[in-house]
Structure formats: C-alpha cells, structure tokens
Design brief:
Largest sheet: 7 strands, antiparallel
Number of helices: 3
Order of helices and strands: EHHEEEEEEH
Number of strands: 7
C-alpha cells in the first residue's frame, strides 16, 4: 500500500468538493502534462466514477474507474480503482479530509496492489495529481 499526506490552504468542504465534482476533477485528476477529457461521477454508495486521462503525446487515454464504497462528506471517501482495458486488479483508495482550521490535510491510502512496481507507479501518479490540485486551488 501507499500513503500520501498533503495539506492545502483551503476549507475541507472545498477540498472534498474538488474530489467529487466532475468539473473540478477535469482540472487536476491526472498526472502533470496529461489532460482529462472525461470525468463522470455518480456520487452515491454503489455509484461509479470514470476519469479519462490523455497523455501529452496525444496517445491513447488511460481510463481509471471504480465504485464508491463509502461517502461521508466532507471527511472521507472510499472507492475502488481499476484501469479500463488493463489488468483486472481492483485496488482500494481511502481519502480522509482533516480540518486544520482553514487548511485541510488530505490523507490518501491506496492499497491492494498486485506488485511493488505497480504501487510505485501509482505513488508517482498520485503525487503529480496532488501537485495539480494545489495549482487548481492557487488559481481559483
């Protein structure tokens, strides 16, 4: 598993909304240099999400999708994670949003990887996504 902690200088409700609003996801939910063409969210337990990330070289998109298992606004999200058309391995993402009085600490745990190299690639991807999220908040 991997755990990433990041603090953002905005209210917890706003960070939770950025994680669950399709329009916000289009701005940050991909590694640096990629773009999101599609962000779909059915925000309910059992509902699905789908995010299509396009690489900078205009190659085929990488599409992440999964099912929401727990939604507790504005404190916690738990959802599965899979790659469309890729390996059948389903992993699990848990995101906690901790109120720090005007700032929010995000604690992201991604687990159930089939191998360490897969975990390491996701660690790099999430770090880049969270950098994008910081830029998204700074630009607003």
């Amino acid at each position: 598993s991997l755990t990433i902690r990041r603090t953002f200088p905005v209210a917890r409700e706003r960070v939770f909304r950025a994680w669950t609003d399709p329009e916000a996801l289009r701005h940050w939910s991909c590694p640096l240099g990629f773009t999101v063409s599609t962000a779909e969210v059915d925000l309910r337990v059992g509902g699905r999400y789908r995010v299509a990330m396009h690489p900078p070289d205009a190659g085929e998109p990488s599409i992440a999708w999964g099912t929401y298992r727990e939604i507790t606004p504005p404190t916690r999200l738990v959802y599965t994670w899979q790659w469309e058309g890729g390996a059948p391995d389903e992993t699990l993402v848990t995101v906690e949003f901790r109120d720090l009085g005007g700032e929010t600490e995000v604690v992201l745990v991604h687990e159930l990887f089939p191998a360490p190299d897969v975990r390491d690639l996701h660690n790099q991807g999430w770090a880049s996504c969270l950098d994008n999220l910081a830029r998204y908040f700074a630009a607003a």
